[in-house]
Every structure is written in structure tokens, then in C-alpha cells.
Amino acid sequence: MATRHEMISNLRALGIELHPDTKMSEERLKKKLHRALDCAQLLSKRLPSSTLDPANLKSWKGPSQKAFVAGNAIEGHPEMNAMHSASQLSPDEDDHFSEMRQALYSLAQQKDQGLKATLIQDEDEISGMCIKFVDVLHLDDKTPVMILLYDHTVPGVLPPMEQLQFCARELCTPHIHVVASQGSQKLLQRLLLLNSRRLPASYQPPRQPYERNFKLSFVLPTGPLSMVDLGTLNEEKGCDVCGEKATQRCSACESVMYCGKACQTHGWRSHKTQCKALSLGTWSTMKFQSLADTLPMFNGIPVEIFNMNRYTRSDEMHGEEGWASTTRDVGPNIHGTNPFVIKIQTNGDTIRVYDRRRSLDVYLMKSWNLENFLILHAAAGTGFRGLKCYRWAKRVSDWELSICLDRKLPEDPRW
């Protein structure tokens, strides 16, 4: 499987904020990568039970390749991609996640063309995967599930590339293959292994004798992480120094966590500037409103329309029957009394404040509280194009926040 360096690069390609030299253990890196891959497949939405029984699904009607183009607004615009891409790879790191997604699209394309199987291999034909298409099934109107059998070669380990090429020839595809680097093949193998565990043992499609060692799995349309998933995975950093499970917060500012005294002492040099700024900052308590109270003329309109952003995926844009209407309910307090980062946006008449996970999403109208509106409007004016900024905040009550307005973050988070 992947090396430690490859796991870190894959996570960074997915938009997870990790230093290339992070001391996080390989086990925690693996768990975080598995969670990120699940999010990339929208697994919690598509498979709430985390299991898939193909015997209960109907066949997918029509071509499936279009569904496997699961992108977002950033990927569709080169200039926006350069400014806002979630990936944080350095020039010497390869984007195996994007390569893997391209391979999945090629698989869907070849299945639509009527091929029974294909061979994935790198340009030097050192490593490869033989893929047999079993079926494409209908999970929902936007989501095909591609069931497949696969085997792969590892350099220096059986089965050799010649054996995979033999299997491909037996499946009548002697000249068809997908080019993918060794790193993207490893990531695809990890994805297939994760999904193989979600199939019931009772589901066993027919196999040819030479397929007896092939593994059974499935793939779903896979795309970039949503803003909510990026926020969730990036908030779960663990210890600010080593990345291991954190047990205590900085007692002065409470903005970072550590696994113990040794890491807290080690991290003080890099943390002290932010710590002192937050500790000495001025915290202002402000009351906010719901979207329904702020913009009553939009009551009954799907709330998802207000939540679309540059990270919203094309395959997450459902019809109105799958949307919830605006509400006066406040989200659950997932932060407790701990500080967290908020985004403050202004449009000249309304202030919107929310966290990265969208667990908090509140508003303030200019006509409702002019004094607080002007304070927040001025703060937003110090940020990107004078429209938004980022600050630390704490929950005071359901609709009240204490915000440290006079202390900027060292740098804007990837949001």
C-alpha cells in the first residue's frame, strides 16, 4: 500500500491541512485518509448504513460516464482554481487524487462503450490493475454504482504484469487500457478495498477460472470535498504539534490543543503570538437572527440555494424535492464554550456569519441592529475584496456570539 509520504500527499491533495513533515502516526493518517475518501464519495449521504447490497438494486439505464464527472465551480474555472483550490500540494508532490478520479471516469467511459474489462497501467508498465466490469446499478437518479472485479500487480511481487495482461486478453480487451501512475493506482486500490468491505458475503457474481483471486468491489462518482467536509476534517487536527489525539487546550487562549505538556512546551514558540493576541483581544457579544427572520420574503425557498458555494459539487445539486426550506431553528452547538473560526460576510444590508462546518449559520440585518451591523461590516471590509473576513468566536447562547474583532487570524483559512 501507500507509503507515509504518499498518504500525506493524498490528504493534502484532498484539501486536508497537514504539514509535509507532520509527526502524525501512520495509523491516524490512514484513518483520516479513509474518512476523506468516504467524504469524496458522499458515502454518508448515499449509503447511510455504510453497506451496499447490489442484489437490491436495479440496473442503471443509459450511459454512466457523465455521472462520474463530479466536480465543483473551482475545477470548472482555471482562474478560480488557481486562487481557491483546496489542494495545497507543493511543486514536488503529485496529485494522485485527481489522477484517480480521471481513471474512474475512463472506466465509466469504457463500460459505456461496451467493454467487458480493461487494464490500468502506468506509462512504464511496471504496475497495473485488471478491471472486469460486472454491472452498473441504480443507487438513485443521479448516482450509478459500478460493480467490478479487480486484481493488481506490485513490482517484484506476483502476479506479474504479464498475468494481468493475459486476463485482459481473455476478456477480449487486448489493446484497451487506462494510463494511471503507480501512486494513483495505489489510491484506487485503497478505495476499492474500503468499498469491498461494504458488500455482503452473500453477493458473489459469476467468475471465470482465471478470476478466482480477483477481489470484488464497487466505485461511486468521486469528487472534491465539500466545504462542510473540509471544515470537519481540518478541525479534527489532534495535537497542534504531533497530530496525535489531543487531551488539553492552551489554558490562555483555548484555540489550540495538545496531547501533553511536552508538545505544548515545544509548540509555544510558534503559538505564542496568536495566543497573546487572542488573550489580549477585545471580545464583543452580539446577537444574531435566523435566515427566515432576516429575509422573510424568502421563506419557503430551499435553504440549499443560500448555501451553494464554490465547493458545492455538481452531483450534490438535487431537485427541490430533496431540499429543506428555510427555518428559524438554530444549529446544534458543536463547539461548546471553545473558540472557533467564523467567516463574516457583508453585502451592504445584511451580515452573514457561519463556521466551516455550517453547524452555525446566522444573520444580522442593518435595520435590526445598526450599531452591530456597522461594526461587523467594517471588520468584513478588512478582508477579501472588502466583503468577508475571518475571526475567532465563542458561543454565548443559541443566537449570541462573542467575537474577537480586533485580532486577525495569522492567515486566511482554506474555506
TrEMBL record:
It comes from the Eukaryota. Residues 239-275 form the MYND-type domain. InterPro entries: Znf_MYND. PROSITE patterns: ZF_MYND_1 (PS01360), ZF_MYND_2 (PS50865). One of its GO terms (molecular function) is zinc ion binding. Pfam families: zf-MYND (PF01753). Keywords: Metal-binding, Zinc, Zinc-finger. This is MYND-type domain-containing protein. It comes from Sistotremastrum suecicum HHB10207 ss-3. The lineage of its organism: Eukaryota, Fungi, Dikarya, Basidiomycota, Agaricomycotina.
